[in-house]
Amino acid sequence: MKLARNVCTKAALSEMKYPQVAASSTGPIPPSQLIQVVETAAKTGAEVVMDAVNKPRNITYKGLTDLVTE
Q: Taxonomically, which superkingdom (predicted)?
């Protein structure tokens, strides 16, 4: 495991420049707006899960231990 640790350290300390994959910042985002986004995402995710709870499930088997659900 020591080798992996050295590789990670060398990568973190590397001076090689990598292309930026992120979008440009529009400035600081107020905490209230972040909370609103998180709440919306959580509510939307909960709706998806709750919609699936009462739907009939079509369960099939690929093998003795491999089941597939829709």
A: Eukaryota
End-to-end CA gap in the chain: 40
Q: What are phi and psi of 55, to 5 degrees?
A: -80, 145
**16-32 per-position pLDDT tens digit:** 777 777 777 778 889 99
In which region does residue 25 sit, left (phi positive, over 0), alpha (psi from -120 to 50) or beta (all else)?
A: beta
User: Per residue, what are the HEC states of the chain?
Assistant: CHHHHHHHHHHHHCCCCCCCCCCCCCCCCCHHHHHHHHHHHHHHHHHHHHHHHCCCCCEEECCCCCEEEC
Taking 90 as the threshold, does the pLDDT of residue 37 lie above it? yes
Select the more confidently predicted residue: 1 or 29.
29
